[in-house]
Batch of 4 targets.
Target 1
Amino acid sequence: MQTAGTGRYLEHDWFPRLLPPNVLLGPRSWLYSSYALLHFRSRRPVGLRIGADTGVYIGSQLEVGPSGEVSIGAFGAIAGPIIATNSRITIGDYALISYGVVIAEEPAMIPPGPPSATPNGRGRAARPIDIGDNVWIGARAIVLGGARIGEGAIIGAGAVVDFEVEPFAIVAGNPARVVGHASAGGARR
Amino acid sequence: MIDASQFTGAWDYATLPANIRLGEDCWIERRDSFSRFVSERDPALVLGDRVRVYTWSSFSLDRTGYVEVGEDSVLVGAQFMSAERISIGRRVLISYNVLIADCDFHPRDPDLRRLDAIANAPGPGRPPRPPISSRAVVIDDDVVIGAGAMILKGVTLGRGAYVAAGAVVTIDVPPGGRVAGNPARLEAA
């Protein structure tokens, strides 16, 4: 399935839900199920964009409130994070995002949609998240509103990041700190 | 395709075990949140009025486990593991991927732990498990617990306490206190 229009199902789906018309799937991309959109309530013209050749695999959830939009670039491997926003989360090309990761505008959010009328982040300033190209995020890491992660950076497993990470930096730990840098042709400290 | 009701809170709550007591207007999104509920206490789980339980929450209650949740609390991704007692106050918000355990579930002593492994092996005719220590977890009203946090055996979180995302909490937190990190430390007010 290339593009989701109104009233379209994913061919391989097990969950009996239509894809919303504001979800755009790039060519040769893969979305494991409409279950990923269980709490997707975006009313933006494009609430979710998945780039070409990107896989969004089982366990991934897109918790997008009425004002929220999520964009994922090309050639990503999105292996089960929870992505939650009522503003904007942008993920570049070649993203590798592991199991159990949470990328969320607020540390404690209530999912949008019924039974609550409370959208994500209501009454608070929007805190977008920007993740550059070629970023690798390890298992159970947490990326919070205000984080800006530069190209080529590595976020270690279990790290908690709510700050700016410069390109090619390696951060790890909780609280997270820079533990090294990676550059093309080999890692250096 | 499957029946979506068991994933959307529209399933029949009367099919739950009789030792689960629900207050008025509770909402429990996913039937499978109870797949590891084996408590023999009565009551074993008490949810106050208007408690909301989202998809990622689970109630792993051992035969002696007990969990109570005060009114208007929101459990987004609270994974309870109880062999004794976990008490949650009113208006508590618990985010994604949070684990709350009142027990270590295995002995600290290596010899006893080997016996426990044997006792837990599959099939009939196994010896009884050795004694395992547990201590109640108490979380007071208006506490907020960020994504990915863990609250371990014997911890008390005072009224209005805040647990940062990813914190691993093994210490008591006074009313209004804030903890972060692994291991979690109390931050200066």
Note: Chain B touches chain A through 33 residues (CB under 8 Å).
Target 2
Amino acid sequence: MQEKAIVALGSADVQMPAVRGRLVRSKWARNLLTFLVVFGPGLIVMEADNDAGAVSTYVQAGAQYGTRLLWLLLLLLPVTYFIQEMVVRLGIATGKGHATMIYQRFGKWWGLFSLIDLQVVNFLTLVTEFAAIALALGHMNIAPKVGVPVAAVGLMFMVLTGSYRRWERVTVFLCLLDTAWLFIAFKLRPATWGGAVHDMFVAGLPTGGVTTGLVFLMVAIVGTTIAPWQLFFQQSCVADKRLRFADLKWSRLDTFLGAVFTIVVAGCMMVAGNAAKVHGLAFSDPAQLAHDLQPFAGEAVRSGLLLLMINAAVLGTTAISLSSAWAYGEVRGWPHSLEMPVRKAKGFYATYVVCVALAAAIVLIPGAPLQLIIIGVQVLAGIMLPSAIIFLQLLLNDKQVLGDEYVNKPWNNWVNWTIIIVLFILSLILAAQVVAPNLFPAT
Amino acid sequence: MSVMALLRPTAISNVSEDQFVVVHPLDDVREDKVDTASLGRMSMTPSVKMSLMALRGYLVLMMLLVLYHVIDLSGALGQSTH
């Protein structure tokens, strides 16, 4: 496979066709600058996964079990990296999105199944993102019927500029705002950091052992850390950014740093939830927790938690809507790039706008069955995840597409099949609990 | 110099011996990729066949469980277990 140099080495004074780039004088500067231009999709896909649902799940885990499940997050760090790294390889090698690849290599039936499943799960997830925005705004005394449409319009403007780079910069900035979780965790720190560090590196079960609640929560943590839309999003993002073969190592680094940042932020969310346990507060949702923690932690923590909840939902919404728009645009054969002006990619942008507008509108309907939608998201995402990863694994073993250089190595396959088997087992445990609710003790 | 200024590209037509050019992927010439459209469908090796069969079985099982859950919740199976 052709390895294309992205930098011109100055071996002599070279006259070349004018290119737009930056001149640097050292290899160190070249590497740093190359990393910075490639940086983006990895951080965004990982941090956008810390969306409103994830905030709720991690904070609930902290509120119920303190820092006892931090080890699970550490375990998920390599898992989430390995899965997304495969997507990067596939995106760079083919320059195409995940939906296209499933259609082309597995046929129309599997392609349609994946696309419909993705669109349904994504849309239901979007509704939960806007529900979280409405909830947080309500606690900030801002009427949801004003705040939700404003958020929706802002989310539309983020992508309608016809510039991939502009969207990426805004989104990376929003991702980096999540460093504020470190401040929240510091303010709500556990009695001793030593205990939290112990819980991170020593796997163990909370007091009370294996219960239905614990199993559900552990499955939810896995499900929220590895989501099907991430596969579609990052591959399309890599393709839209036109990353080159030589960018692979920097894109891997971007993905790895994104995974580390995301897991650190998720850990901070768990530490924040731990404060509810410490102060004996009942957990219902993160916004309520922010309100209840104010007497102990102050107004800055309350406002910070609410704003971070909105930021999480905004990040989740833009990434999930884009994964839907890219996938649908690819399959329909429409122009589908953030680099294109609206008039040249009407279908692609319309899909994004419709997803955002419809999800926002549903949240504003009085008495909308939001709880049913949240359960629907969990069930469908649980069903879809193992199947999406199987397609990914088969595509990454496809030598016709990836050649010898980029195809999975035997150790990749061992790791990935182990991950797939664990995910199947978790899905089956979830399913078994549906059939036999008393499989594990209730308390 | 800010990061944004550092990343802002300029037109370059001459590179001296001690210099390197870094080009943003969107400013670079499009790279040739694998023509996946001409490859057609994936060849059904035993491992691919087995994986897809396992996936079909898993999906059928999950759908049956969801169906059972819905029927159970509706009370058609007697007193709901939930």
Note: Residues 1-12 of chain A have pLDDT under 50 and may be disordered.
Target 3
Amino acid sequence: MRYKKYEPWLYLAPTLLALVLVFAYPVVRLVILSMQRRSKGEMIFVGLANYRSLFKDDVFLEAVGNNLYLLISVPIMVAVALILAIFLFERIKGWRFYQTTLFLPYLLPIVVVGLIFSYIFQLSGVLNEFLTLIGLERFALDWLGSTKLALPTVMFVVVWKEVGLGVVLFLARLMSVEEELFDAARIDGASWWEMQWYVTIPQLSTVIEFFTVISVITMLSWVFNYVYVMTAGGPGNSTMVTELYVYLQGFRYNQMNLAAATSVLILIVTIVLIFVQFRLREGEDGWEQI
Amino acid sequence: MKKHLWAILAALVILSMIAAQCATPTPEEPPATQAPEVEEPTEAPEAKEAEEAGEPVELVMWWWGEQEAPGAQEWLDETVELYQQENPNVTIETVLQSTDSLIPAFQSAMAAQEGPDIQYFWGGVWTLEFAWGGGVAPVDDLIPEEELAHYINNFERTYDGQIWGVPWYMSGNPFVYNKSLFEQAGLDPDKPIETWDELLEACDKLNAIGVTPISGGLKDGWFGGWLYSILSRQTHDSEKEYMKAAVGEASFTDPEFAEYWVRLNELKEAGCWNEDINSLDYQQGMDNFVQGQAAMIFGNDTFLAGWADTMGGWDDIGLMLVPKYGDGAMADQYVTTAQGLGITSWSEHKQEAADFLMFMHTPDRLKAWFEYTGVIPADDRLDPSAITQPQLQQVYEWDTTVPGPNMENFIPSMLDEQAAFAGAQLLFAGDKNPEELAQMTEDVAAKWRDQNPDAVENFRIWAE
């Protein structure tokens, strides 16, 4: 059966049209907005002026810095998820219970998690009461009210919630690894550590890459809810993140153009990361092409 | 794959730049330096014909208020029902917005020029920014002058000679105290604190009996704005001074502005506040007072009836004006604002919307409002005899004799958030001193001016 060249495009047309309408149009509108500014009641083209304003804004720079700071949690999340997945894979006693328990936080709505931890981490909250009760009152700190502690506290909550996804991903992959690989390593006399290093981790490498990229994207552009519920960006701007900055610019300060410029920057970073992920998944050959 | 991805990205960017260059000015945007021109405020011919013919008119109202004036929902439902009985051709749909969605939802509606006919607005800049953006219609020609004359505090919605909305109810900030705790601390429960020194002394006495003197919660920021509005005013004569500083005709580092941070720091150093103020949100800070764990709070008069319910009556609730430290004209005023409603510029039924707003201000509805909510309506036609609680009589007296503007309504929202909200948090976290905070406020104002030349011009006109 012969097809004309344009036929496949004809079949694809409805979907392509939907994609253009749903994705491309908003992105184009966003980029347009980011290059305009209101002047005497009219939207005028200002080129990159909004972007220049952003890089002069100390709050924006602090937000970017905080997003980058949150990246510290990515290796922590990967390591914790890996260790937990390995233990569960080893079928430790009660592993099924732990498996469910570890994944549970991931299923909870972020708002609920944020609210609960807000109460826990208050100066007069549960954690500090407990620390005082066991005689560790000098560790009873103002977790959310101090500019030095608020961001690490938020980071802890993000890790607590997101690590469950990593555990499930790693465990799912481990369960599909051929048992013979582990048997062979055992026969060769590999120690427990050697088995993890030479068998488990290499087998998990693609999933680790995937989870790492997903976690990086989360930390750069998916932490709004945590921050909004737990600290609203404060104290001061110590937990300000770029998404919250977009929200404030757009909906509190009525500066949609600056909000759009920030969104474009976040979008570019996210696209680059997704691109990196694609390349990683394509394997070593892919890297050579980059 | 890579080539395709970059090609698509490049195409998008180029397309956007071309489109941005070619984009024609949005026709609905009004000139910044004058009030936006909106449709002739009198009825559109179709609307008039529809009314004359008794054709169906559907009004949509997006509102907020149940959150601070419980009972508002019931009152509004009843009011709509009564109005519809009197005007069978009119149907009114009311949509209660959450605090977080109130502004974003309307911004989206304004961008699309499609949405409600009646929108809830806080006062001052929270109304006028939307008027400047072309989302609100003036009401001068929709509501007779003699009717407008009864509305309290509507100067907040006045800009460039036109009125951009209608007030609904009053929301003021009394300094509330717990009479029992005052008595326990050896303070006279029937003699409100009048001076700043007396306040500091009261903090000592309350601390001595283990009671938190003043409770607050800064975590969500809002209370920082309240404090700024309530405490910073005493060295000023008018809200115009703030507006002038915002546009650069004065500086927030000038002594009369910087003193606010000094005074707030004084209260902090004197141990007047709860230690966990930075880790609590406003509601939690308020709960401390209502539960009897703190003796004083910078409250809101719309909450008083609810607090009385929770505290088992009005006996323990005392009200006072903010103790004085300054000698500006605003030092003796009661901070208050009128929460209100506006008619959208795109509404096809502006006159019907205005008629409904006027119906909300009829004496029967004003009385019912007070009965449902315990909150003072923004209209001088409320029969004062309806107010039987001495505390609410006091609020009514202040509202009608010494009302003063809420400063948050007269400064750019960026200044409120990045200086007042953030500054209070940084002070209590011990990260910045009063001098640094005054400078921070000025820096934020300078940034706002740099980013918003249009808004600066609007503020300049407004300040005149």
Note: Chain B touches chain A through 59 residues (CB under 8 Å).
Target 4
Amino acid sequence: MGRVLAVIIWLLTLLSVALFVSKKWWFPPSISEHGPALDRQFLITILVVGVSFTAAQIGLGYMVWKYRDTGKSGDRALYTHGSNRLEVLWTVITAVVFIALAVMGQSVWASLRLHDAPPGAYTVEVVAQQFQWNFHYPGKDNVFGRTDPSLIDDSALNFIGLDDTDPNAKDDSVTAALAIPVNRPVELRLRSKDVIHSFWVPPLRFKQDLVPGMEIKVHFTANKVGKYELACAELCGQLHFKMKSYMLVLPEDEIKSLSALSQEQFQARMGELLAKYQLPSD
Amino acid sequence: MSAETHEAVHRHEPPKSFIRKYIFSLDHKVIGIQYILLALAAVLVGMVMSVLMRMNLSWPGTNWPILGTLFPGGAPGGVMNPEFYLSLVTMHGTIMVFFVLTTAPQGGFGNYFLPIQIGAEDMAFPVLNMMSFWVTFIGFVVILSAIFLSGAPSTIGPIGGWTGYPPLSALGQIAGPGQGMGMNLWIISIAIFCVGSLLGALNFITTLLNMRTKGMSLMRMPLTCWAWFTTAVLALLSFPVLLGGGILLLLDRLAGTSFFIPGGLYVSGLLSGTNPNFPLHTGGSPILWQHLFWFFGHPEVYIAILPGMGATSHILATFARKPVFGYRAMVFAIFAIGLLGFFVWGHHMFISGMSPYSAVAFSLLTLSIGVPSAVKTFNWLGTLWGGRIRFTTAMLFAIGFVSLFVAGGISGLILGQSSLDLPMHDTYIVLGHFHLVMGVASIFGMFAATYFWFPKMFGRFMNEGIGKIHFWITFVGVYCIFVPMHVMGLVGMPRRYAAFTEYEFLKSLHPLVIFVSVAAIITVIVQLLFYFNFFWSMFKGKKASDNPWEATTLEWNTATPPPHDNFAGVLPTVYRGPYEFAVPGAPNDFMMQTDVGTEVTSGNGHNGHKH
């Protein structure tokens, strides 16, 4: 029985490790500047995790293989209550390794979250609502027009409550897909009209909740032109699984020409761009 | 009645009537069994729900005629609605976390065995004990009633996940299906459950501190008692916070308050304050709920698993025929886990909009909690090392616990890092992680406990042959279900999706999704063997003696099953530590805690090691 159990534990360990090592199912290739550093941190962590997991399971299998009761009469187990030296040793080793991992992990976090977006970042307001994304661009003047919840009227397609009487709003555009420049810092100002949603673009290695009542500013830099799926990652109601949009990462000049367009032209051009770019096919 | 019992007498006569004996019983043993039966009923409901969810995820759009017949609203024409699926998610999580993982390990086995293991005649407050069970039972009835009274015919409960984040959960029907009466019942059920758990926690703490028999010093207690005690302390400190949060959430829904609802919301075409269906709200904070919820929710994870750790330590020592390796370190590790468990709740909220500086602290503290967890694992291996292992079904499940605890716990090193949480948060890797460690590892601890203590509780063994088949398939099954979820998370699969049909990036995962569902369905079916074994053995199992496993602790000192006052009027006196196996020179390879016999160094993990 002990040997069977040992072999099964080892087999399950081997298969579990193989599932990761094969990389058949893995992160999509990174499209963000912080992606490689994050991937490196993940790799270091998964190595520690993999080695600890494998060692513990091999050890467990070894114990049950080796120390099964052979039924010999008078044969007794080792009488010991442990070893303080060992306890101190493995406490210190695990503490050092685990806390070192946590400290190393802070650098990516700090670069993204403990600093504001660099000056000159391309800024978009993101306003989520049940099962739809709205992206608000400031236009040529680079100033967002005033918005007010009391002006929201979904039936009139004013999803974000943009104040048409505000001069700054004249050149603003609101679309259902996100367009950002490549290789330039992007700041998103995240808001929600109703419940909590979460902005999630897998190859961007980036996620952030949109919380009603708050404006959350986050920033990142995308470094690969293309079209990517944008999903909601926080349960927001019945059609949560369909709350989908796209993020277009575009050359700088394309972004410039978009900014110069009127709302209708902007939307039409976005339609063309969405059709032009293909989703990455692994 | 014996005259030499010691002074702390909480005697109550064995009741005669059926109702006082089996229904409104004051006997901690009957109450323990009531909790276990409640958990057995709840886990069946939770499992059936998980199978329905897997069916929908793997074969979306399939017509299941039986579903259409049973739930014409939720699965019209036999095809499941997304809102039906999401109500399953919510109910599955809530029922499993509260009514299974919190009831069986603590209310069930803890209630039954804590008083016996410390040599007490009953719990300190038998009436409170009875109330805690019946309050919990009412909570269960209320959550089940949400299936039928959810307020929307297309759901069988609220939509919110077991975390019930507002404003979705606070706005009422305006926020969509699953936000009506079902959500009220969900909150009320959890509030009732909190009260029941608080009553239980008071009882456990008082009993353990005041009612240990002569010679039962704290460091002579079995590790199970340390685990139940720490769990009770966690429950006492964390459930009030959830209770408070639940009351505030209910007020937001019913009394027009705005604890969790900010101003200026625009929901389903209506602005807050412009319509009687959507009164004016202002000034609330959705994140406040997350702090309150997770201040409870994270200790809750340890409430679920600590008793399993205790049972595993207990059973590993018994069947390795060896003292627990590093008893003292194990006690400190339990404390450290309990204490640190209160300072890590923010790792559920790295991307919630909480201050990113708090995330730094929470991340460091979270990885620290891996240290006592690793210490426990080392000591379990140390306990097996040099043992003479007897592979009973209980032992197999205890070894399985160690394997699963490592497999599930270790990915905490990934998820606990705020930077890595950016891609991982709310994906399937989180599901794989917490199901393995908090879900099935805890359940394996309970399976081990059931096979181990069943002979004491019912006077008969469970069938070992059926038990072993149950173990092998379940052990392999849970690995097949939950390890693949980790790589699904790497690809980015979000949790709480009713279907994966909308996204190209999820298409490549389809074979894994099917694999997991098939494994889950097989594993769930095999659990029927356990149910059969449990109830069949109660009446037909092989008869058990008083100490069939040749174990050492006090529950094996008394009759099988134990008499109404546990020790037939004579409380035992304890002379040694709990796990004195293989003592050199002793006549048997085990020495009961009550054996006067040869004086051995008092056996609490400090032999030969001077401090």
Note: Residues 354-543 of chain B form a domain with the Cytochrome C Oxidase; Chain A fold (CATH 1.20.210.10).
